Amino acid sequence: MSAEFILLAGFLGSGKTTLLRDWLALPEAADTAVIVNEAGQIDVDGAIVADGGTVPLALLNNGCVCCSLTNDLVFTVEALLRQRREAGQGPFRRIILECSGLSKPGPILRSLAPLSPLGLRVRVVATCDAAQAPSRAAHFEEFAAQIAAADTVVLTKLDQAPAEAALALVEGLNPLAARVVEGDPARRALAAFTVAPGLAAGFPETGRAHPEVGVTLAEFGEDASWEDRLDWLENLAAFAGDRLLRVKGFLHPPHAPETALLVQLVGTLQSPPVPMPRGARTPEALVVIARGLDAAALRDVDADAPVRLSRLSDRRLRCD
Ligand SMILES: Nc1nc2c(ncn2[C@@H]2O[C@H](COP(=O)(O)OP(=O)(O)OP(=O)(O)O)[C@@H](O)[C@H]2O)c(=O)[nH]1
Q: How far is CA 238 from the centre of its chain?
């Protein structure tokens, strides 16, 4: 039987990497290859997925797979398959592409055309954050494009919000999608990646640009203390409020030279930092994604803070 190509979509911070990690921890995930598309310069998701595992992993960095990296995607899939053959291992059962959080599945699906001789069975799995879905749906056409393109929609954060409002939204956007409403992480991952696909994906292409989204890289100076870092993050959340969509990256605590802390905020809600080994994959920097706030605007978080803010082109996230 031919391999599956699963496009894992879902809005910023909706739980794609978490779902993927939960899946890779299951015995059913044997013979899975992963491609991670990270819009920012630091490959946070790749570092998380690779952490401690042996999964064949390829990275598409520094751009959005649905607009600027489509050729790279075809090349990457072919390279993964070739390496596997050359290593004398059996074929992959599935390849999962984790898209960046503002990618639209439509252009990615179209870009896979050169791979059609391989006979990959393609489907779309989208994560939907039960807590954030109503506000995402109101502000971002990408949310609708992701849900509408999905064969399977997986509700996440059911420990933070009831499922009803998100389910109603999903049903309105895509009544044909299979829905996974499961609080247990392992069962959720199993259902997400093994549920029988429904009808072929359909997706609206509106062509409208999303509201302005700024992507900023925040790097702390040598002279920054640990408190400076924590204060800046706290001030950022207070300053940006609901304009803050996502923060992720690594901080290097001066008192723990071997450790990098994975820091994640979805909206202004911060998850407990996760310690990881410090190394080339875990440079100290934060990617800040905010509506209507670019690097220049973020200087007002605290003009005196020892932090360097630089702009990552908005085009990297736009898919219009
Ligand atoms: N409480 C709770 N937190 C979750 C759940 N799923 C993910 N998270 C947390 O939400 C944050 C974002 O999760 P990720 O898995 O990184 O989300 P993502 O969609 O890969 O994020 P991007 O790649 O930035 O778009 C992390 O801090 C996770 O630990 C969930 O079901 N419940």
A: 24
Q: Within a domain: residue 233? A: yes
CATH value at residue 289: 3.30.1220.10
Domain that holds residue 251: 213-311
- For residue 48, give the ligand 1 atom closest to its CA: 16
- State whether 95 and 225 are in the same domain: no
- pLDDT surpassing 50 at residue 240: yes
Would you say 129 and 157 are in contact if contact means Cβ atoms under 8 Å apart? Answer: yes
Q: What is the pLDDT of residues 98-146, one digit of tens each?
A: 998 888 888 888 788 888 888 888 889 999 999 999 998 888 888 988 9
Q: How far is the CA of 12 from the centre of ligand 1 (A)?
A: 9
Does the CB atom of residue 184 touch ligand 1 within 6 A?
Answer: no
Whole-Å CA distances, 73 to 64, 80, 86, 262, 305: 11, 11, 20, 27, 39
Compute the distance between CA of residue 198 and CA of residue 128 in angstroms, rounded to an integer: 18
Question: How would you class 54 by CB atoms within 10 Å of its CB: exposed for 0-12, middle for 13-18, buried for 19 or more?
Answer: exposed
Task: Among 125, 159, 194, give the residue marking a domain's end.
Answer: 194
How many separate domains does the chain show?
Answer: 2
Instruction: Read off the tokens for 222.
Output: 């040598």
Q: Is residue 318 part of a domain?
A: no
Query: Which of 194, 223, 252 marks a domain boundary?
Result: 194
CA 218 / ligand 1 centre spacing (Å): 20
Residue 207 in domain: no
Best mutation site among 12, 18, 21 for ligand 1, i.e. most ligand atoms within 8 A of its Cβ?
18
Helix-then-strand count for the chain, H and E: 10, 14
Specify if 91 maps to a domain.
yes
